[in-house]
Design a protein that fits this description.
The chain is α+β, with helices and mostly antiparallel strands. 39% of the residues lie in helices and 21% in strands.
Length: 269
């Protein structure tokens, strides 16, 4: 069960990385959780296709990013777009120069975006993103930054620290599996969410079937179900605006707690 109430997610994600970092310094290098065979579909609205990606901090001493901070893909990882054409064929394209990355809640999640016009140029009807192993994102350079990321810092964060983080964030375990399932649910929810509990339950069932719960830990599945149940109650009682926003905050809680445990084991950076 989560130990931190979701109302504190934003404050936690924004502060636990500030132990020795300056607020006016370049923010933290982030790891992007690998897809591990489950590409993330993008939803299109108002000319933009986007999705929620799980992320984590690789530099405890650097300040956490503000919401909507711009990031760029670092060398060493891969971000592949999988476009489905009208005839059912799929094409795979390197996504580095085609998408934009901006933080959502602290270091715990990133929004990936693609102009819908780019899909039309490819004659595609839908698109998903596949995040490869050891993929990281670095803050976009800011003119006049008094403490920019150095090449040595980036190399350490994207190399040794990123490899250490695989065990905590990408290999099967209770927290990693719960985070993966909750992110899948966030992205599976339609823009116009179902207005009944039965409709929302159907989306959860779809996600569990897609993920193949036999390959996930029972503890991780149970934790994801508990996150969903808590949000379902909040939506039904109108204490949460909608299921997506509630799950985003619950997901942020989980990623922040996992990140804290990771730092405690590795001594931060």
């Amino acid at each position: 069960m989560l130990k931190i109430h979701h109302a504190f997610a934003l404050a936690l994600a924004a502060t636990i990385g500030l132990a020795s970092g300056r607020a006016d310094a370049a923010s933290q290098v982030l790891g992007l959780v690998a897809s591990n065979g489950l590409p993330t579909p993008l939803q299109c609205q108002d000319g933009t296709c986007s999705a929620h990606l799980s992320s984590f901090c690789l530099q405890q001493a650097r300040p956490a990013p503000s919401a909507n901070s711009e990031y760029e893909l670092a060398s060493g990882g891969t971000l592949t777009l999988i476009a489905t054409l009208a005839d059912g064929r799929q094409i795979r394209l390197p996504g580095e120069r085609l998408v934009s990355l901006h933080t959502m809640i602290g270091f715990t999640s990133v929004k990936i975006s693609l102009p819908e016009a780019n899909l039309k140029k490819m004659n595609a009807v839908s698109v998903a993103v596949d995040i490869g192993p050891l993929t990281t994102a670095v803050p976009a350079p800011i003119a006049g930054d008094p403490n920019p990321q150095t090449a040595e810092e980036i190399a350490y964060a994207t190399g040794p620290m990123r490899r250490l983080a695989e065990g905590s964030f990408e290999r099967h375990g209770a927290s990693a599996d719960a985070a993966r399932l909750s992110s899948l649910l966030i992205n599976a929810l339609p823009i116009e969410e179902p207005q009944t509990a039965e409709g929302r339950d159907a989306v959860l069932a779809q996600v569990l079937a897609q993920a193949g719960t036999g390959s996930l830990t029972a503890e991780g599945v149970a934790q994801a179900r508990q996150m969903y149940s808590s949000c379902e109650i909040s939506v039904a009682s109108k204490s949460a605006f909608n299921l997506r926003s509630c799950m985003e905050l619950r997901h942020a809680d989980l990623m922040a707690v996992t990140n804290r445990s990771f730092w405690d084991r590795t001594g931060g950076s």
